[in-house]
Design a protein that fits this description.
Number of strands of chain B: 2
Strand content of chain A: under 5%
CATH topology of chain A: ABC transporter involved in vitamin B12 uptake, BtuC
Radius of gyration of chain B: 22 Å
Helix content of chain B: 55-70%
Largest interface: A-B, 51 and 50 residues
Order of helices and strands of chain B: EHHHHHHHHHHHHHHE
Distance between the termini of chain B: 17 Å
Order of helices and strands of chain A: HHHHEEHHHHHHHH
Oligomer: heterodimer
Shape of chain A: globular
CATH class of chain A: Mainly Alpha
Largest sheet of chain A: 2 strands, antiparallel
Number of strands of chain A: 2
Largest sheet of chain B: 2 strands, antiparallel
Number of helices of chain B: 14
Number of helices of chain A: 12
Structural class of chain B: mainly alpha
Strand order of the largest sheet of chain B: 1-2
């Protein structure tokens, strides 16, 4: 397989953990809540899914439980940040630390064990194309994630619920004045973010690299946070950003496989370096951030 | 006021309650203790043995208390530095990376000049470590001030990169050729090791340094004009900008102070208990220090107590690992839940909680 075909075939799967987590965070941030705890919710979801799949419970149950686990941590965050109006940054960091601790604690006895991933589903005809054929052979979660991306794009843009979520993020005072329960909507958005982060962790640990290693999320939750900024809070751009990151993380491997000598530590830090560079480029465009940004992001709301 | 379940509502206090501020950490400790108690029972561990090992044992013998003091040193150094930034709303969560860079910078002397002698070597290493940490923090500072990028994300990414840089050095150019292929540097020469402070223990002069640092931060934040500006800048950025104090300066100061402190701690770790550069040089001090800083109320004096508590908890966790077969990660969970409950408890400092009479409850 050529390097290009390798990247094309693998980039969607590599993008999926980023994409799932970033879509969830996108909804939370659109409602005006900045949850920095994604890394912890992903790590907790990852371990819960891994244990269930390892015990023979199957991927469906694993993903479901991971979603619930992520959501549980998200609700702790929501309780702190929304009900008690604690500092959102500190509350998010607390969830990140707690989630990673829980992940390490529950995963201890599973260190270095494996589970089987999911078989790929090919699109008839297209999967046989030269070079690009691999793009059309993906595991079911990738296909579902693509559907979810479309659904979320539609929901945020064209449905009443999407409009209400965005209104709550832009101007919570006005949204409340016309009768929307701001805190309840924010609770819902944060819980959805936790659900998606749990799924993202489950995908990472039971499908993408079905092997348990402590700290396996390796900063992907933080990159997902950065992706939401890159995308300037737009669903379509979250998708392209995630795929770009998937491609970057595979690009190094492809280059190495084709004989280019690349230092493996440099390769491992490539996604982080790219994150810093892209973050600098996008953020320096203050006008773009101001137009697309969420006006009340990170600010506590109380009447 | 805000909506709370169970017909409670929050009423903002006129002034922060001092009593509540002191009670909040204790309440958090109690709540976290209770939750983790249930967790230990669920895990089939003997909770009494765990709590004895974690909370009592570190204080009963001089040898284990000296280990607490050893653990306290980096936590105190880093957390005091981070708190300056946190109070100015500059959220540096990359102390882990700054610590690693400090360790690398300090190690450069014994690695490159293993034959060098002189009592000044360890002092130079500490200084280099501080510089290394501060240099690593210049990237997020520049990114935030000139490119408007979130320092939260950039500092974290820099930590992940620092870990890879350390790996690279230890499997590559800095690997000890006589080290049986372990990813670690040569053992440092005697003059590159910090002098012992308390004979018979591993406690070294860095402990004094940490307390001096805490004192300096106290003077800086509580007594100096610049510290006051930083503080007000965090509370009311527009007001300080109006008064001519730039946000950019606050960002630079916060990150350089935080980076310097973390780098210093990293240097003290390699030149102290480790005596060589290792892959596990940090064991998460940079992240733990975030908890220490918040738990100490971001106050220089409070942080002394919170670093003592968290250091004891970590040494206690090591004890419990041996005596009660408790995984090391249980300490992380305890610390994480402690921060969660602390953030909940400080609500009581800012707000009064009032029962809402039933007739006021809206349907």
């Amino acid at each position: 397989m050529s390097g290009l075909a390798f990247i094309i075939a693998g980039m969607l799967a590599a993008a999926t953990p980023f994409l799932l987590a970033a879509l969830g965070e996108l909804v939370a941030e659109r409602s005006g809540v900045l949850n920095l705890g994604i890394e912890g919710m992903m790590a907790f979801g990852a371990v819960v899914a891994f244990i269930i799949v390892h015990q023979g419970g199957g991927h469906a149950a694993g993903f479901l439980a991971a979603g619930v686990a992520g959501m549980a941590l998200a609700l702790v965050f929501a309780w702190l940040a929304l009900s008690l109006r604690a500092n959102q940054v500190a509350a998010g960091l607390a969830i990140a630390i707690l989630g990673e601790g829980l992940s390490a604690l529950f995963g201890k006895t599973y260190e270095s064990t494996t589970v089987t991933g999911l078989p790929k589903i090919a699109v008839p005809g297209l999967a046989d194309l030269p070079v690009a054929g691999g793009l059309f052979q993906q595991d079911p979660i990738v296909w579902l994630t693509l559907l979810a991306t479309l659904g979320l794009w539609y929901a945020l843009r064209f449905t009443k619920l999407g409009l209400v979520i965005r209104a709550v993020g832009e101007n919570p005072g006005a949204a409340r004045a016309i009768g929307y329960p701001v805190l309840a909507i924010r609770y819902g958005a944060v819980a959805f973010g936790g659900l998606m982060a749990g799924f993202a962790g489950a995908y990472a640990s039971t499908v993408y690299t079905p092997l348990w290693a402590e700290g396996m999320i390796a900063g992907r939750g933080w990159i997902a946070l950065a992706l939401v900024v890159f995308a300037t809070w737009m669903t379509g751009r979250v998708f392209f950003g995630a795929v770009l990151f998937g491609a970057v993380s595979l690009g190094g491997l492809a280059a190495q496989a084709s004989g280019v000598s690349l230092n493996s530590q440099f390769l491992a830090s490539l996604p982080y370096i790219v994150t810093i560079i892209v973050l600098g480029i996008i953020s320096s465009n203050k006008r773009l951030l101001k137009i697309n940004g969420v006006a009340s992001l990170g600010e506590p709301f109380g009447p | 006021m805000t909506e709370l379940p169970f017909r409670l509502r929050l009423i903002r206090r006129d002034g922060a309650s001092r009593r509540a501020a002191l009670l909040a950490p204790l309440a958090a400790l109690l709540a976290a203790g209770l939750v983790n108690f249930l967790l230990y029972i669920a895990m089939g561990k003997d909770p009494a043995a765990v709590f004895y090992a974690m909370l009592v044992e570190p204080f009963v013998s001089w040898s284990s208390f000296s280990e607490v003091l050893l653990k306290l040193t980096p936590l105190l150094l880093i957390a005091e530095g981070l708190a300056v930034g946190f109070r100015a709303k500059v959220i540096n969560i990359g102390a882990e990376g700054q610590f690693i860079l400090g360790a690398i910078f300090a190690a450069s002397i014994p690695v490159w000049f293993p034959e060098a002698t002189g009592g000044w070597i360890w002092a130079l290493m500490l200084l280099l470590g501080g510089i290394g940490g501060a240099l690593w923090a210049t990237v997020p500072a520049f990114w935030r001030v000139r490119l408007n990028a979130s320092e939260i994300l950039v500092t974290l990414m820099m930590s992940l990169i620092a870990a890879q840089l350390l790996n690279y050095l230890l499997v590559g150019p800095w690997k000890d050729p006589m080290g049986f292929n372990f990813p670690q540097s040569v053992m440092f020469q005697n003059d590159a090791i910090l002098p012992t402070l308390i004979p018979g223990t591993r406690v070294n002069v860095a402990l004094i340094l940490a307390f001096v640092w805490a004192g300096l931060i106290y003077l800086y934040m509580q007594k100096s004009f610049q510290g006051y500006q930083l503080l007000v800048g965090g509370l009311a950025p527009h007001a300080t900008a109006y008064a001519g104090f730039s946000e950019g300066r606050a960002v630079w100061l916060s990150l350089l102070i935080g980076g310097f402190a973390a780098g210093l701690a990293g240097a003290a770790e390699v030149a102290g208990p480790l005596g060589q550069l290792q892959r596990s040089v940090s064991s998460g001090y940079g992240y733990t220090a975030i908890i220490v800083a918040y738990l100490g109320g971001l106050h220089p004096i409070g942080i002394i107590f919170s670093s003592l508590l968290i250091a004891a908890l970590n040494i206690g966790g090591d004890n419990a690992m041996v005596s009660a077969d408790l995984p090391k990660a249980a300490v992380e969970v305890f610390q994480g839940s402690l921060l969660v409950f602390y953030l909940a408890a400080i609500t009581l400092v800012r707000f009064r909680i009032q029962w809402r009479p039933p007739q006021e409850v809206r349907a």
